[in-house]
Amino acid sequence: MSLPKIAWIGLGIMGSPMSENLLKAGYRVTGYTLEKEKLDRLAAAGGIAAGSIAEAVRDADVVITMVPASPQVEAVAYGPDGILENARPGTLLIDMSSITPQTSVDLAKAAKDKGIRVLDAPVSGGEAGAIEAVLSIMVGGEQADFDEAEPIFEALGKTIVLCGPHGSGQTVKAANQLIVAVNIQACAEAVVFLEKSGVDLKAALDVLNGGLAGSTVLTRKKDNFLTRNFKPGFRIDLHHKDMGIVTDAARNVGAALPVGAVVAQLVASLRAQGDGGLDHSALLRAVERLSGAQV
Questions:
Q1: What SUPFAM superfamilies does the annotation carry (predicted)?
Q2: Which of 39, 94, 103, 229 is paired with 84 by a 20 to 30 Å CA distance?
Q3: pTM
Q4: What is the pLDDT of residues 123-181, one digit of tens each?
Q5: Catalytic positions
């Protein structure tokens, strides 16, 4: 069987390496994004650069979107130049962005009217996970559509789970972002505590990561803490957006998030101080400021 033709919309920090992994797996990928250099990168990797969304999706069997937030998903999906008006009936649309669950539910309903099937499939693992094709992929939608998409997901990640109906993937991703933010905040507070106590920070983090305090977050972000290198793998701006999603969704279902609410405010504070473009491990800077350091 020939592999399905894929249109990829959104070639950012995550989208570029993910689309390239599909090329390595033998898929034909036609991409569209607003930045010419990202289209040039896709073409250099063996993909096809399209001049518009309509051009990218016209002959695709599968359309994958990876854009920053709900407004961008709506912008690329709807309208005369969008995916729903230009993709063929029967196309499978996989949105891998991190957006509100309701946006995913609404998109699935609108797409159904056009004969287009939808999965919401946000990911966790950051830039490193995208490059290494070891992402966790949490999916919402129909079982048959998930089964069809699974070989594509297997080229992108390692942990791939259908979590329930449309919107379920986004709900699980919101919970993921809650856990990650709280974990980074706890690690940042521990780093400041350890340094102010005069402990060898590298040694301390190594031993902590080998015990119950260890985590994927600490493994991935340990060097950021040690070197104060906050080059964005996942920007504070995006985590601020995600914390808004989870706090709003939790309020809608009556779930209390007392620690999450505090961390959401700390993320918002860091963004307000001009650090929104930094990696989310820069929560360390907020703890340092609160502890009297000039950052």
A1: 6-phosphogluconate dehydrogenase C-terminal domain-like, NAD(P)-binding Rossmann-fold domains
A2: 39
A3: 0.92
A4: 999 899 999 999 999 999 999 999 999 999 999 999 999 999 999 999 999 999 999 99
A5: 173
